[in-house]
Amino acid sequence: MTTGPNVDQSEFWNAQPGRNWVLHDADLDAISANVSGLLLAACAPAPGERALDVGCGAGASTFALAAAVGASGAVLGVDISAPLLRRAEERRAALGAGNVAFALADAQDHRFEPGAFDLAASRFGVMFFADPVAAFRNIAAGLRPGGRIAFAAWAGPEANPWFTLPQRVAFARLGPVAQTPPDAPGPMAFRDVDRVCGILAAAGFSAAEGTSVPTDLHHPGGVEAVVRLAAHVGPTARIMRENNGTAVDEAAIAAALAVELAQFRSDDGVRIPARVNIFTALRE
After folding, report:
1. Angle CA(29)–CA(32)–CA(37) in degrees, nearest 5?
2. N or C: which terminus of the chain has fewer CB atoms within 10 Å of its end residue's CB?
3. Tell me: the pLDDT tens digits for 86-135?
4. Looking at residue 234, what DSSP letter applies?
């Protein structure tokens, strides 16, 4: 039986949605590559540092940190999804990444070794805590004094058609689903920079800053690849599940979404405009 402060999230990421992310991890890494670059720049990892990757998923961000800290450093990736961590372990073995380890753990209440890390980082992995102040306070306990945190979160939906277009198309076909409160755990929970900086301060961090940064989600496979991905990850998948969508509905939604996304075709595939918030802070 699943227990802990984030039981709903644990059940979600260990069920079919988590398995879908495993199946499409290469696509997800592709469209998140520019965000990964922004995050790595904010982290400024140095050779020999010890880093914690929160919500590491299948490990792409973990391996990027590991390359930056080098063989003299180490990175621990934690996630609540067993399917995603199994994929991360497969990738670690294939890469021979001896400075990487993974753990099935909820960063909100996992007992990290006090002061074990120089840096905590996350690419879209920290917006889902039931109690974000408690979660960041717990992460801070794992950082050495003066250690730092850097993470990427989605800005508002109005700047992210990756969310709004699939939702609109699926609603038109199947009708709406129940809306969650805007600050509830979820992809857009950290869209408000001032609110998140306040959470970090309440958790014991200092010098908290957040910057809203425009970028794009690039997939070299083009619109067709993104449409296939959207059927299994994100708003379309949720609306299909909750409204009992059929294969016919899925095909209709995919056709309509392809028309919407055609405006973002590029010479190198597709580039969907996006905006993310990059946050940094220091442990006092």
Report:
1. 110
2. N
3. 999 999 999 999 999 999 999 999 999 999 999 999 999 999 999 999 99
4. S
Q: How many CB atoms lie within 10 A of CB 241?
A: 12
> What are the φ/ψ torsions at residue 121 (nearest 5 degrees)?
-140, 160
Q: State the first-to-last Cα distance of the chain, in angstroms, to the nearest integer.
A: 37
Q: Which of 45, 66, 55 has its CA nearest to residue 119? A: 45
Q: Which residues of 21-49 are buried (b: 16+ CB within 10 A; e: fewer)?
A: bbebbebbbbbbebbbebbbebbebeeeb
* CB crowding 80-114: b at 16 or more within 10 Å, else e: bbebbbebbbebbeeeebebbebeebbbbebebee
The domains found in the chain, sorted by start residue, are: 7-158+179-220+273-283 (3.40.50.150)
The structure tokens listed for 15 are 């069920």
Q: Which two tokens stand for residue 172?
A: 């038109």
pLDDT tens digits, 66-76: 999 999 999 99
